[in-house]
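Bench notes, bay 3.
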Amino acid sequence: MKGTIAMAEMELLDSARHAALRVSTTPDRARHFVQLVADEFLSAALHYPILFARHPDTGDLYPGALMGLVPDENLCLGASGKLAGYRPADLERQGFYVSGENIAIDRSHPALVSQEGDAVFDQDGDPAPALRRVQVALRTLHRGLPDTEEFIARLETHQLVEPIDLSFQFDNGESLRLDALYTISLDALHALPDDVVLSLFRSGGLQLIYAQTGSVRHIPFLARRRNDRLSGLVA
């Protein structure tokens, strides 16, 4: 999962040592593409376009929620500076990592360096709601990555993934084109043999495919939001 750091830079989370630790959602503002696992598709598709990108090191496809059209831009934040809809697990776990049977933290991560945000532990040293959300997110990612990789492998086996053309023209004259993003081809899906489609249906893959392809309807919202931002109509 993107964001892994060397163990030497991490500390094991400890309720006594980190009693005053707080976790902030501020880093969400700079996340324009957030990695997802397949179990998140149905929730994320209600709010964001789900597209595929390739890992720069391996070239492997991975799915993500598109939240902005340029790096360090999140167009999905509400007036409070927080996401109004589903918050993906990879955002919930920012600064937190799995280390064997324990949770480790990167004290230098922007989510953990602020005095603002939600407490990680309550007054009794037990996990506060923020930490419980982190625990759920880490489990979601840990359990979901293998299933997601298998789902993508099936998409590629049946040649269902294709590049998506994303070009925008804004009122201030700015032109923007997003490359190296991919979607699922419904034409290719509908051309598959019946037995393959039935297999995708029984495995749950067909539901994920329609969630992903339906989610692209949110792309015009991102374009309108960026256009309003460039025009000074929104912050």
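Next record in the batch:
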Amino acid sequence: MGTPSLVWFRDDLRLADNPALRAAIERGEPVIGVYILDEESAGVRPLGGAARWWLHHSLAELRDRFIDRGSVLVLRRGAAGRVIRDLCDETGAGAVFWNRRYGGPEREIDADLKSALRDAGVEVASFAANVLFEPWTVTTGAGSHYSVYTPFWKACQEQPAPRKPLPEPRTIPGRAQPPASDELDDWGLLPTRPDWAGGLRERWEPGEQAARRRLRDFLDEDLGSYDAARDEPAAGATSLLSPRLRWGELSPHTVWHDTLEHAGTGRHAASAHGFLSEVGWREFAWHTLYHFPQLAEKNLRAEYDAFPWPSPERADLDAWQQGRTGFRMVDAGMRELWSSGYMHNRVRMITASFLIKNLLIDWRRGEEWFWDTLVDADAASNPFNWQWVAGSGADAAPFFRVFNPELQADKFDKTGRYVREWAPEYADDTDGEPAEPMVDLKQTRRRALDAFDVVKRSR
């Protein structure tokens, strides 16, 4: 029996287009998959509740697919560096492979582990798998990173085309006596007291196979209307692929090439271009996080440190979280989020703007709530998008751009279908009583702009 290869899975819960898995199989020795629930390593952000729910189900499918192909996925809990070293000792592993991560704490963990394993004589290799363009490969003419999306995405498109996705392995060579594994149910990832995940179960089916079906359905049925209807939350034109990309059930390379092959130069080409530009926005978020690891805690634009956030009223934050603001689009969006772990992107902008600019609550409080309640919240896109709305981030919307939630509802939910689904008391044909508006939009807009004057004076 040879020295086995460990494949350390992180945010890449798939068999197809998994370069680390492919390298392990090609090494020609038994392969052991590993997933570590790391809530101990310094700087690693604990997962939110909705993310933990998704992780449980995605891991369950990945574990079963490993078994079907002849190997095992070992589950362990603890500080990742220590767990991997222990597994190498237990199994006599001769190699460890993983796909790269781009957050600051995660890169430190991986670099330290790589060094320790090599010193111990273990082969180690990492691979590009979860972004199309690794953050250090896209630079300005001066050699620095980008802070504006349009030139960033143009520079990406001038790079060599993203590689073709790798096929899924038919078999994974296993080991006669695999190491012990934790029981997934013992990790307590699913809510029980209370079980608030009914809406998530109704809306989502985590796992690689469901992710592939969703991509295929989107390309076949929705891509053609994406460009025209993507801002309408009731239109059903969005891809719903964000949690699939967040957990790596699909690789961005698969999404990229399948979209281009499906669209070709035909009538869906414009929609395909618009959709892939959103994939580019995800790339820009990871590019920004790589160069600014404190994205969830600190303003990217330092002048916003002077913003005079008042002490938030707990009741105001509660009303926003619970969808009781008295503004139909905000309330509908926040209830969709709580029920399903998801919110349409246009509505995310509306609800975020309302919290930051009408309630004058620090963007970090909203980012924390989305981190806990979104199934697709990742370390890059979640804080990146909150800072974009707040005006403090990369290529940000200016602070004085304050969404009027009522005008947004009139424009993007003209028939009221979205509001009727999630906040039916605002519809004319129901007996429900909507909440009274908690603030005056004009007055709070003026208050926000007055506060922004402090930032302008600090420059």
